Automatic annotation (TrEMBL):
Pfam families: DUF3405. Residues 303-313 have a biased composition (Low complexity). The lineage of its organism: Eukaryota, Fungi, Dikarya, Ascomycota, Pezizomycotina. This is Uncharacterized protein. Residues 301-327 are annotated as: Disordered. InterPro entries: DUF3405 (IPR021822). It comes from Aureobasidium melanogenum.
Length: 525
């Protein structure tokens, strides 16, 4: 595309300070953008007089073809190029027997060396066949493809993974049914980057897991997708109600680099904190303070054992103990993270008010099972991690709740997990000292095990109202309020989020990951 996102570095006095996370730690620009600068190139107000971008007949655009052509043009740099637009469908499982009774059921035969990279990442946006796409949704999808897949010259590939609600369509056995659902469910411009599935496919592959709804098992389709498209190193799972006010490819690259730069040592502990520079200093200061709070710089070291169900696939630590040696601190540096989390990591055993606290099946340990939770169920997982979970569910019938799946299996297998210090705003903003207490439990030095332990860990917490109104959360009114003023659906008044700036009749937004942005009253059937 000729038009590009036009964000700018306007000096509007002070840039808003996130309540948690850091632009500096992630190496992100503190940019501003009007909604026209952000989404104008992708069709925002295209029919209005004075539209300054190229006029595009979006129904004639084929985003899968464009991505495929881009990857083909860069095939020397990306030698594992595959054709995205070729017909690749999920197939029903042929053997319906699990291997729980097998003595080596926990053994995973296929493990990739983390140092050997294909150089490509998939971005999977989850949708349903009954989802009504608004102009807002389409502009968002166009921006992700253009700025991540095309602008990166094929490093990223974007897919729609669509859950078909009409089981009578038989999309996995009837070509005509598949084509019909695709035509009815997905806007024409996105059809050649779409993969359809339904619950019968999940039931085929994970019969003894019993649960297959996205509420309980959000990761099952992603696990199968990694088997269908194994040519990627990593898989981003994002929801349709995510919005990025900054250049998508640049922010994902920043996440990638941050993950690579982090050592494995104490990455588990650091991920439990809502990093707040006002209290924790620079990220280097924060890292050192977490280490100093723990006796002899200990912490999670290698896989966390839970019993015979898991045979770890992660690498052996460089030494028996996590002492403060240079070699130990270098372990994992320069290695891509197997899991990048967009929110903090919480020990489920501490979540007394979480309703799914004891929802796990197939494990030898019962109440003492160590496992972790990080909502919402979005982030980036490696092929190794998704393959390990696929094995555990298809061969061992293990199951835990959606938001616990990725972090728990990563830690059980000794894979590299990194919590991203994503800048998060709040409106109306609460007192920062009180926020530090409810999110983290207090100062780092108060916790000799290195883990934050704030009283507000879930939306069901008794004082959960204190953290409402965040720019990125499981449930929050702030994203919709922010978008309404930014897009001109509401005129500036005292209720406008303080992070927005009005200048010369235009509303500017800082760089943000917004979730959830609800464009309609849709709920999947």
């Amino acid at each position: 595309m000729d038009d590009q996102l036009q964000s700018s570095l306007h000096d509007f006095s002070n840039y808003p300070e996130p309540i948690s996370g850091s632009f500096e730690a992630l190496g992100l620009n503190k940019s501003w953008a009007t909604v026209d600068e952000r989404y104008g190139p992708y069709g925002f107000q295209q029919t209005e007089e004075g539209y300054q971008y190229s006029q595009v007949d979006w129904d004639k655009v084929k985003w899968g073809f464009l991505q495929n052509q881009c990857a083909l043009d860069n095939s020397r740099r990306l030698p594992n190029h595959f054709n995205l637009t070729s017909i690749r469908r999920f197939q029903y499982r042929k053997d319906h027997l699990s291997a729980r009774s097998s003595r080596n059921a926990a053994e995973i035969s296929s493990v990739r060396d983390a140092r050997k990279k294909y150089g490509k990442q998939a971005i999977i946006l989850r949708a349903w066949s009954t989802y009504p796409y608004t102009d807002d949704d389409k502009q968002n999808l166009r921006s992700i493809v253009a700025e991540a897949a095309l602008a990166s010259h094929g490093k990223y590939s974007v897919f729609l993974l669509v859950d078909v609600k009409d089981l009578d369509a038989h999309v996995h056995s009837d070509d005509a049914g598949y084509a019909s659902v695709l035509e009815k469910s997905v806007p024409e411009e996105f059809r050649d980057m779409t993969v359809l599935f339904d619950t019968t496919m999940l039931e085929s592959w994970y019969p003894a897991v019993l649960e297959h709804s996205p509420f309980w098992q959000m990761m099952q389709p992603l696990q199968l997708f990694s088997q269908l498209y194994p040519e990627f190193d990593h898989y981003w799972q994002l929801e349709m109600d995510v919005r990025v006010t900054q250049h998508v490819g640049q922010i994902l690259d920043a996440f990638d680099k941050f993950g690579e730069d982090q050592p494995r040592k104490q990455s588990h502990e650091r991920a439990s904190w809502s990093y707040m520079p006002r209290f924790h200093g620079t990220y280097a200061d924060f890292t050192q303070r977490v280490n100093s709070a723990m006796p002899n710089g200990t912490g999670t070291w290698g896989p966390i054992p839970i019993g015979k169900e898991i045979s770890p696939i992660g690498p052996e630590p460089p030494s028996p103990k996590p002492d403060d040696t240079e070699a130990n601190w270098r372990w994992g540096v320069g290695e891509p993270a197997d899991l990048l989390l967009l929110n903090t990591l919480m020990d489920v055993r501490r979540l007394e008010d979480w309703p799914f606290r004891h929802w796990h099946y197939g494990f030898t340990k019962d109440k003492d099972l160590p496992y972790w939770h990080s909502p919402p169920a979005q982030g980036r997982a490696s092929w190794n991690l998704l393959n390990a979970i696929h094995h555990a569910q298809s061969r061992q019938d293990l199951r835990i709740a959606s938001e616990t799946t990725l972090p728990s299996f990563a830690l059980w297998h000794g894979l590299k997990l990194v919590g991203l210090p994503l800048p998060i705003f709040q409106d109306p903003e609460r007192n920062r000292d009180e926020l530090n207490f409810v999110l983290n439990g207090g100062d780092i030095e108060q916790f000799p095990d290195g883990f934050a332990n704030g009283p507000v860990n879930t939306r069901g917490a008794s004082i959960g109202f204190f953290v409402r109104g965040r720019s990125f959360d499981w449930v929050s009114p702030m994203p919709d309020r922010t978008m309404a003023y930014w897009k001109g659906e509401k005129q500036p008044d005292d209720d406008m989020p303080k992070i927005l700036v009005e200048r010369d009749g235009k509303i500017y937004a800082p760089a943000m990951f917004l979730h959830p942005r609800k464009t309609n009253f849709y709920r999947s059937d």
